[in-house]
Specification:
Elements (H helix, E strand, L loop, with lengths): L2 E7 L7 E8 L5 E5 L2 E5 L5 E5 L7 E6 L4 E8 L2 E7 L8 E6 L7 E7 L7 E5 L2 E5 L3 E5 L7 E6 L4 E4 L6 E4 L3
Antiparallel strand pairs: 1-2, 3-4, 4-5, 5-6, 7-8, 8-9, 9-10, 11-12, 12-13, 13-14, 15-16
Amino acid sequence: AGYALQVLDVTDPSQPSILGRLDLDFGVRKLALSGSLLVAAGGEAGLVLFDVADPSEPVEISRHGANGEAVAVALVPGLALVAEHGQAEQSARGLLVFDISDPAAPELIGTYSVGGEGAEAVAAFAKYAFLSGYGLHILDLSDPTQPIQVGSERAGWELAVSPSGRRLYTFDWL
């Protein structure tokens, strides 16, 4: 058994059909899409970018390894925000900020550590990242090379931000 990225046609939801497939040597934890750029949090493979312009032939463009595990990803224009989890001593164990303006060469430009075993989820709206990891961390990304915490809350394991950016929904064990 292996892993694969599949592109499905769901024009008729009662009969989804596979348009394309790409076999992978890693598992994917979360996906985010911007145009024809599909971005994956690929666990130990790190950040992985795919070109899905031709749905019959998705193509891996690039990878940028993580010291821990890339467990979630969110996109803001030109940036991929990766939640990293793990026990590796050199792991940022928090947020990794990548410049993906050149998808063939993603560049790690900023980090934010939450300590412990790291982050579990990330969501984004405008210039803010919402990161879960030992609580909720609200980060200002005005300078993506130096994310700054501007707020926090005890709860927050899984996250979703409303389209308006005015509401954040979290899940936590209380």
